[in-house]
């Protein structure tokens, strides 16, 4: 998955998040570069996290602040729905589309676990 900068006058940048499933095993990896415009701010950022008792793996692309907001919202959904990945993703999607603040977030999440992989984007 790549999320490309959409601002005029800014050269396109992209984050790479790769999710692979083989049998019941899932691996998620991401690049570690954080940029602001053309300036590389960090080379070893962690764009992949574990949620819900390490059962769900989440990778993000886009604005870091927006991604952390979505991480928090998704983690709350996982807790509310006892770790059910699909139900939590659907509920986050509903909230993302109806909430005025969330609607403008510039981030994507790749979520994986329980034999499922999903791309969540507004």
How would you sum up this structure, described in words?
- It holds the Pfam family Proteasome.
- GO terms for molecular function: metal ion binding; threonine-type endopeptidase activity.
- Keywords: Cytoplasm, Hydrolase, Metal-binding, Protease.
- Belongs to the peptidase T1B family. HslV subfamily.
- The protein is α+β, with helices and mostly antiparallel strands and 122 residues long.
- It has one domain (17-121): Glutamine Phosphoribosylpyrophosphate, subunit 1, domain 1, CATH 3.60.20.
- It contains 2 helices and 8 strands; from the N terminus they run ββββββααββ.
- The strands form 3 sheets. It has a 4-stranded antiparallel β-sheet with strand order 5-6-7-8, with helices on one face. A two-stranded antiparallel sheet has the order 1-2. Strands 3-4 form a two-stranded antiparallel sheet.
- Strand 3 and strand 4 (39-42) form a beta hairpin.
- Helix 1 crosses helix 2 (85-98).
- The two termini are 14 Å apart.
Notable features of this structure?
2 helices, Glutamine Phosphoribosylpyrophosphate, subunit 1, domain 1, 122 residues, 25% helix, disordered N terminus, alpha+beta, protease
């Amino acid at each position: 998955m790549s999320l490309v900068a959409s601002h005029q006058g800014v050269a396109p940048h992209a984050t790479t998040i790769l999710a692979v499933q083989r049998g019941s095993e899932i691996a998620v990896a991401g690049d570690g570069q954080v940029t602001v415009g053309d300036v590389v701010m960090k080379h070893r950022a962690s764009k992949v996290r574990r949620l819900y008792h390490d059962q769900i793996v989440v990778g993000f692309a886009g604005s870091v602040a927006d991604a952390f907001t979505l991480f928090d919202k998704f983690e709350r959904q996982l807790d509310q729905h006892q770790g059910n990945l699909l139900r939590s993703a659907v509920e986050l999607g509903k909230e993302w589309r109806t909430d005025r603040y969330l609607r403008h977030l510039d981030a994507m999440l790749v979520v994986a676990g329980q034999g499922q992989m999903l791309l969540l984007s507004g």
